[in-house]
From TrEMBL:
Coiled coil: none annotated. Keywords: NADP, Oxidoreductase, Rhamnose metabolism. This is L-rhamnose-1-dehydrogenase. It comes from Sparassis crispa. InterPro entries: NAD(P)-bd_dom_sf, SDR_fam.
Length: 261
């Protein structure tokens, strides 16, 4: 077990499964003393996040606090900070990860799908980044690391993602501007851009065998990503190894973006 996050308190939104869950497990392995695990609040995600809490507290010295709520509601972000501070006294790292991608055809897309995707992915990211940044500014010692989980979709298009890709591009832009706005408070802000990661968010899309195989063939490393592939770069950005890294975007895609042919 390494200690890249020794004694740090790490807050992760959308922590019950996928990338968020992997980031929580890796943070605990890397010595985090506290985890603030956010989840939506339905029975399924509650069971998942509670099992995650038990798991990390069993194999590591980390303690975990769980917080439920719709990230699109700004009150949820306030509650996340309140629980983190009440339980651990501070927040050192935020992983703004919660997001959705209900695949839909552009011309017939119902407006509520656009609205909900924007509310969760972009509005939710803004709310939690703002709330946690205020805490990082106020705490002693001041500062922290904010990591926005964007996507390769911030850089390229997708036929059934006309509502999703703009939100991920916006998260990348949000991190760049926050790096400028928050640097004077010793707060770093960076974006991670996952490629095609096999998670619940794209499970149905990747069930198309032909599409899945074509995606694998386009990836230089010859496989789809798994959530653990994102957790390592996230831990790096949260750690003091990245103490001079802010406003950066880290593409973690197995070579998908560069493989034109």
């Amino acid at each position: 077990m390494s200690n890249l996050l020794q004694d740090k308190v790490v807050c992760i939104t959308g922590a019950s499964r996928g990338i968020g869950r992997a980031c929580a497990v890796e943070s605990a392995k890397q010595g985090a003393r506290g985890l603030v695990l956010h989840y939506l609040g339905d029975p399924e995600t509650e069971a998942e996040v509670q099992s995650l809490r038990v798991y990390v507290e069993t194999f590591s010295d980390a303690k975990a606090a769980v917080v439920s709520g719709d990230i699109a509601n700004p009150e949820t972000s306030t509650k996340i900070v309140d629980v983190g501070v009440k339980t651990f006294g501070r927040i050192d790292v935020l992983v703004s990860n919660a997001g959705i991608c209900p695949f839909a055809e552009f011309l017939t897309m119902p407006h509520p799908i656009w609205e909900r995707t924007r509310q969760v992915n972009l509005d939710g990211s803004f709310f939690v980044v703002q709330a946690v940044a205020n805490q990082m500014k106020a705490q002693v010692p001041q500062g922290g690391s904010i990591i926005g989980v964007s996507s390769i979709s911030a850089l390229v298009g997708g036929e059934y993602q006309c509502h999703y890709t703009p939100t991920k591009a916006a998260i990348l832009s949000l991190m760049q501007s926050c790096a400028v706005a928050l640097g004077k408070y010793n707060i770093r802000a960076n974006a991670v851009l996952p490629g095609t990661i096999a998670t619940d968010i794209n499970k149905e899309d990747l069930s198309d065998v032909v599409k899945r195989e074509n995606m694998i063939k386009r990836t230089a490393l010859g496989r789809l990503g798994v959530p653990d592939d994102i957790a390592g770069p996230v831990v790096f950005l949260g750690s003091d190894l990245a103490k001079y890294v802010t406003g950066a975007s880290l593409l973690v895609d197995g070579g998908l973006f560069v493989n034109l042919q």
